[in-house]
Hints:
With 436 residues, this protein is α+β, with helices and mostly antiparallel strands. It folds into 3 domains: 3-106, Serine Threonine Protein Phosphatase 5, Tetratricopeptide repeat (Alpha Horseshoe); 144-230, no CATH class; 238-435, Thrombin, subunit H. 44% of the residues lie in helices and 17% in strands. It has helices spanning 3-14, 22-32, 36-48, 52-64, 72-84, 88-100, 108-120, 124-136, 144-156, 160-172, 180-192, 198-206, 211-223, 230-234, 257-260, 392-401, 418-428; strands at 238-246, 252-255, 265-269, 275-284, 289-294, 314-319, 331-339, 349-352, 364-366, 372-379, 387-391, 429-435. Strands 1-2-5-4-3-12 form a 6-stranded antiparallel β-barrel. It has a 6-stranded antiparallel barrel with strand order 6-7-8-11-10-9. A hairpin with a 7-residue loop joins strand 10 and strand 11 (387-391). The radius of gyration is 27 Å and the shape is elongated. The relative contact order is 0.09.
Amino acid sequence: xxxxxxxxxxxxxxxxxxxxxxxxxxxxxxxxxxxxxxxxxxxxxxxxxxxxxxxxxxxxxxxxxxxxxxxxxxxxxxxxxxxxxxxxxxxxxxxxxxxxxxxxxxxxxxxxxxxxxxxxxxxxxxxxxxxxxxxxxxxxxxxxxxxxxxxxxxxxxxxxxxxxxxxxxxxxxxxxxxxxxxxxxxxxxxxxxxxxxxxxxxxxxxxxxxxxxxxxxxxxxxxxxxxxxxxxxxxxxxxxxxxxxxxxxxxxxxxxxxxxxxxxxxxxxxxxxxxxxxxxxxxxxxxxxxxxxxxxxxxxxxxxxxxxxxxxxxxxxxxxxxxxxxxxxxxxxxxxxxxxxxxxxxxxxxxxxxxxxxxxxxxxxxxxxxxxxxxxxxxxxxxxxxxxxxxxxxxxxxxxxxxxxxxxxxxxxxxxxxxxxxxxxxxxxxxxxxxx
Length: 436
């Protein structure tokens, strides 16, 4: 089998049924043409833009030398990014990497952690691996009942290997009460799927059943239907990421409307690196503003500036651009206010020279006292350092309309260095995940 065709099989087996990014789709199309170098380039571009499936594919290609010289360590890093971004297949593959020491140090405990994350989302292979880990006590405390529980989940989805092993558990009473009828049902299903040796084991178990038990077992086999994969319904795709910042002690977060548009689920990651679900409270497409609420009490709230800005005033942008490529701890850029209006003299916006990238949207634009003067929103890529932010006053009116009064105290009484402004901003700025 050609290398490209083997990779097509890998991709086809691992794709979660969801809409795909353009870069990822172009990578898959290139694989089908056996053009691995193009596939590698497209996967890399998608990975650097934060698409977890592209990150997973790029990691796989690096680890296995598809379209490039093999680099298992680099491949494992991209797999981990995809796994941390919620890609179920990447979580399972990262578990396998830690189990075998492929690109990462061999670590059964870390392997079990990632296998279990994927298993909990319905990945049948990860469920089978979780069962084997609990059976052997590798990376987890040995627990035959837990092993049987995961085997049953995989067996119910139609995995013949899990069905065969589960039949053995029922036959011997491992992790479950001994039940020859259940053993017969599961081994019959495995035999029906042509699992090796299952037909012979079925005949052996049948010898220990009464005619009535065998008849009932055959009836259950005929009536059996595989359970729908939990991963197909529960898994949501990471559509994109953006930035937001805390504006109330009750957990309100402001960001751009375009960051949250079309999201089925919203989550925010704060200073403690924990993800928290967020609820969309209000949005204004006209002003490109959205208000979210998280169910925790933030320690720090962003203060707003009340005085007007002037062209030439120094400003700092803080946010989480290009998730998966740039620093997960946040990025700071420095520039100046270049105009007090946006495109076509739109007075709701500011123009600045602070460089921004995809993912900065919704983040705070601050003066040198650490006070919010705007909400970063967009740039013109073809023009250098032409970037825009919704004015802080416009954001304050939007928030007030929805019952959130902005803090007009806080910040420093003296101008600070950019690094100090960034350190303060980091305490109230969050990364937003949009899932669809």
